[in-house]
Amino acid sequence: MFYFDHNPPHVHIEYRDKKIKLDFKGNILAGDIESRTALRLAREWIDFNRNELLDNWNLAINGEELKRIKPLE
């Protein structure tokens, strides 16, 4: 997630030099990751953290400090 980024709300994911943007429903907005496992894990993380992601999105578009979101365990 980047400060002052454009809508729709999304996250930037990087895996083995491949980049992808996913919205908060797990839909691919841009890019590609060849690993189905990496994509599945990213979507699972988004599902578990959707509310926290939305909170951080609102902070980011206002230039405020983001809160840490736990990784998958």
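Above is the first protein from milestone M3; the second protein from the same milestone is given next.
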Amino acid sequence: MKITVEFESMEEFRANMVPGKIVEIKSLKKAEKQMEEEPTATPEKAEKPPVVDRVEVRRALAELNKRTGKKIASELIHGMGFDKLTSVPDEKLGELMTKVKEVEDAE
């Protein structure tokens, strides 16, 4: 079987391609509607902080304390509701690292 498709421009080609999926297209309007309905990224995935290593977070906190000369690391950890870095769950390490970067950018 051989299928030939013609597009007016590269933009039209890209607009009609659905990466990673084989889509049976019966009409152009149906395909356009399908593409509009499919989300490109789920909000849960977009909002999740990246997964980071505990050692990396510890190093970033230590460097932050050295640069500022203050105990900012413990303030950030306490602000999240934990006593020390070892009590912060792995799921929250990305959030803590994000806060470290925010403080670094503010200074």
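Note on the second protein: The mean pLDDT is 76.
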